[in-house]
Amino acid sequence: MTKEEPHCVYLVGAGPGDPGLMTLRGRELLERADCVVYDALVPRVMLGWCRADCELIDVGKRGERHILPQEKINSLLVECAQRYVCTVRLKGGDPYVFGRGGEEAAALQAAGVNFEVVPGISSAIAGPAYAGIPVTHRDCCSQLTIFTGHTAPEKGDSLPEVAAIAATPGTRVMLMGVSRLADSMRALQNAGLPGDTPAAAVQWATTARQLCVRATVATLAEDVRKVHLSSPAIVIIGDVVRLADTLDWRRRLPLSGRRIIVTRTREQAGTLSHSLRELGAEVVEMPTLRIVPPPDKQAFAKAVVNSPHHDWLVFSSPNGVERFFEAFFAVYEDLRELGGSRIAALGSGTAKQLRKRGLMVDVMPQEAVAEELIAEFDRKADDFGGLANSTVLWVHARQARDVIRRELDKRKAIVDECIAYDVAPGDARYASLLLEEGADLITFTSSSSATNFVRMGLSLPEHCSVASMGPVTTATLKKLGMPPTLEADLHTIPSLVEAICRWAGTTSK
Ligand code: SAH
């Protein structure tokens, strides 16, 4: 008899909002979870790390408006543990810092369910850090107090906690306290805390929406009201708040405060996401398309088998290169089997994939547009004696426009086609979850990512600008009723990133 896998519930801290602040252990558990029970403050992008068949249960609660009462969450976790081997209870920040994780653990323990805890980075620590405030500093304090503003008194200052917090030295960080900020600041002053003590409030800390107000205990509530800063926010009280004058590292990044959705396939999003993230943006990858095998697998296999000894190989996309060589090496062991074909690539990304395989490109247009590739062929025709009677293998996606085929035919080339992959819409459930959180900009790097966005039943979040990779994508976006705010000058990722930085420089957050 094989031993059954023990069922377990993992209480995992999701960190304060920036998905990069999740622990490695937490991510690993999300990737293998059968079920995830999550709160309102959990970044939706993390749900994309789960398996496609993972059950996602939203028990979101924000501030005092509990969508599901705590007892119900406790019993839900026990039920999940009966059904699933791996249940992740995903909670904002750290599960044991004002997260009621202790109650959930106790309920699991009482029901005889195995549980483990994966701590997370609490907003109480990360929030100040992202606002340029170190919670401790040798020159300012030797003590850190974290308390909840939830139980702060409506009136009066007689509660022991208020007196204790007012009297305690060092940095004090209050969670869940902005809705009653004026009352608690008054109570603390009445209990003896000097009104000129530095204080700050940080909303949506570590995300693109982060908003920070710096003042004093006497003036904070009024300043917070003026900018409509509300929950979720932390309040920091103490001399360390002054250090933000010099330590506010996040402001200097050009895309800081911008939430940008990148709609590419998961495989392709890497370079664009990385560049935007390095410039300070909060990047959300939302795959609107998936690369799947071509509809006619046999025809693809046949085209690959017959690929050697063409005069030309023309690759339309990086994915085409990858899929082609995957299949090629399933049949042939040696790259030299390919023969001495000349190679054309539509765009630098495609050329890069070829270079990775030790193949240099003979023809590549400046812009990754089919018409430009043909123009480049014409410009270079004298170098290789034109295309007439040359055999060409054109490797492309099922959806490729037929410009290349048509134009090569016109130039009397003998064209074989190799349809290497198909493009299917992405996961609509996940995409809708991401859109719930809104965005400042959404990038479309191809017509198909735009078409699939609409096909998935999605629509643009409010006040969201649109970025296009080039004229063809722009035309599609206009047709779909999503005219772009900005377009890359050249059909390349660096050029798109440049255009996004220009846009960020001229629009306010
Ligand atoms: N376990 C969480 C706290 C849960 S209580 C943690 O360790 O961070 C919820 C409170 O956390 C909110 O009312 C707010 O005070 C604070 N909070 C959580 N995420 C926050 C964020 N990104 N920015 C500011 N405050 C946040």
Question: What does this 3D model show about the protein?
Answer:
- With 509 residues, this protein is of the alpha/beta class.
- The chain has 4 domains: 8-121, Cobalt-precorrin-4 Transmethylase, domain 1; 125-250, Tetrapyrrole methylase, C-terminal domain (Methyltransferase, Cobalt-precorrin-4 Transmethylase, Domain 2); 259-288 and 427-506, Rossmann fold (3-Layer(aba) Sandwich), CATH 3.40.50.10090; 292-424, Rossmann fold (3-Layer(aba) Sandwich).
- It has 19 helices and 22 strands.
- The strands form 5 sheets. A 5-stranded parallel β-sheet has the order 3-2-6-1-7, sandwiched between helices. Strands 8-9-12-10-11 form a 5-stranded mixed β-sheet, with helices on both faces.
- A hairpin with a 7-residue loop joins β10 (198-203) and β11.
- The chain is elongated and about 90 Å long.
- 45% of the residues are buried.
- Bound molecules: S-adenosyl-L-homocysteine.
- The site of S-adenosyl-L-homocysteine has 25 residues, from α4, β10 and β12.
- S-adenosyl-L-homocysteine (SAH) binds next to α4, β10 and β12.
